[in-house]
Amino acid sequence: MKPIIINLGCGKTRIPDSIGVDCIKIPGFVDVVQDLNTTPYSFSDDYADEIHFYHVLEHLDNPVAKLEEIHRILKPGGILYMRVPHFSSNGAFTDITHKRPFSYFSFDIFEGDVPHSYYSKVRFNILNKELKYS
Questions:
Q1: Are 99 and 58 in contact (CB under 8 A)?
Q2: pLDDT tier at 134, thresholds 50, 70, 90
Q3: d(Cα 53, Cα 17) in Å, to the nearest integer?
Q4: pLDDT in tens, 68-104
Q5: 76: phi > 0 → left, psi -120 to 50 → alpha, else beta; which?
Q6: Per-state percent for the chain, helix, strand, coil, to nearest 5
Q7: DSSP 3-state assignment of 32?
């Protein structure tokens, strides 16, 4: 059985065999038109095996709620691949559409047992974190 892969905020990026989701219909890339600031998203609970979410969260309101929505859509054991700008990167503050930058520790609240983990009941197992400078 083929895994279900969703590319949230895909723009003009096509991940093979994925469902492309963005707020504007772009033929050949966007399969589902969805305002990612508005939840719930157009997918049922425990739907996706994989979600790709690259350089989107910094553009959205209420990042905790968006990650809770992604958690709802992911199957148990599903994988979220996500990239966001680090506060020290040049692009973090120069893009006028960015609502916030992030730090290396921003998402630790989803693992529990850290200060501020009470902001969400959702838990992710963070498998890998990297800072990449280009």
A1: yes
A2: low
A3: 15
A4: 999 999 999 999 999 999 888 877 878 888 898 899 9
A5: beta
A6: 20, 20, 55
A7: strand
